[in-house]
Amino acid sequence: xxxxxxxxxxEGTEKCDACDIYFAKYQAIQERLKxxxxxxxxxxxxxxxxxxxxxxxxxxxxxxxxxxVYFLGDDEPVEQVPTATNEEAPPPAPHGIMAQLAESHPxxxxxxxxxxxxxxxxxxxxxxxxxxxxxxDCTIVTNRHVVDFNEDLYRAAIYSNxxxxxxxxxxxxxxxxxxxxxSRIHSAMLASGAPREDIEAVRDELSALGDSLNSLxxxxxxxxxxxxxxxxxxxxxxxxxxxxxxxxxxxxHQVRRSETLDLASFQLPAxxxxxxxxxxxxxxxxxxxxxxxxxxxxLTYTVTSGIFSGNxxxxxxxxxxxxxxxxxxxxxGPLIRExxxxxxxxxxxxxxxxxxxxxxxxxxxxxxxxx
Length: 371
Known about the structure:
Layout: H1 23-34, E1 61-65, E2 68-72, H2 96-104, H3 110-116, E3 118-122, E4 128-133, E5 139-142, H4 144-147, H5 151-159, H6 162-192, H7 196-237, E6 240-243, E7 249-252, E8 256-257, E9 264-267, E10 289-294, E11 302-313, E12 318-322, E13 334-336, E14 342-349, E15 357-361, H8 362-369
Antiparallel strand pairs: 1-2, 3-4, 3-6, 4-5, 5-9, 6-7, 8-9, 10-11, 10-13, 11-12, 12-15, 13-14, 14-15
Helix pairs in contact: 5-7, 6-7
């Protein structure tokens, strides 16, 4: 059995051992996404234009009202026409992404409803982040740094990789050990009067090995630069991937970026998405309870809580400070009230501290993207 989501092959036919989806349920969701049920919204009836002339009393006439025919004659009493009621048509049946998530992850409170409108973002260069849906047309807001490839940060991440550091140390130690061994052999050959050509061969190898030791940092730099350039090309040509709480993934090729703020926006190729109501951050009071939704360290759809700590002036705007944990993977996710409305975009933390995070007020995203 091959998993339709992650491609994992196994013998079991009920549930994927790799990504934990149930095959039947996943297939049903995909079918509903491709073929949304028709809306039950009723079309309003068209009214017949009223005549400017009076009905003649001697001639029979017909009134078409609600599909019934009533005749008026000389001697017959006029039948009463049923009066129209003020009952509203039933709301349209849920469809699209909203119906899909309502079935797979029915929200039990306002926080879980906001969770259903939060997305997990993965980039070609391995960066993880979050975003959230702000309109039913599936428009999403996130941080610009979540979707932008930063060469300096990527290079620093490569150098700080423990596996790479261990590989470089091992290579350096192997070359040094070989260099010391050849030095010992060379000294012994000189002392024993070995043939000149043998001594020269060892001396040449020693010289080349010494050059390689000296060039090792440069080799590492060249290899890292090549990897960074390769990834920069992929970042320009490959899509980012946004996924919903039920695992549905969308490839995103076009992103709007703010020129002045750490904000970005894109749209899912879907319809009728659940969305988070945009609130106002100006009426926040210190101590108000707040929640974050995101994917810290890849732990998708984690909810954490804290309080509003105060406003802090940044270089170009006033940020919202909170002690609700904001970790890598939370960036771009919503900072919400207890009623599930969003008041900020989780953006940054103060390095070397805990419990000091900052969010961009939602009003700035409203103005930037005309939300």
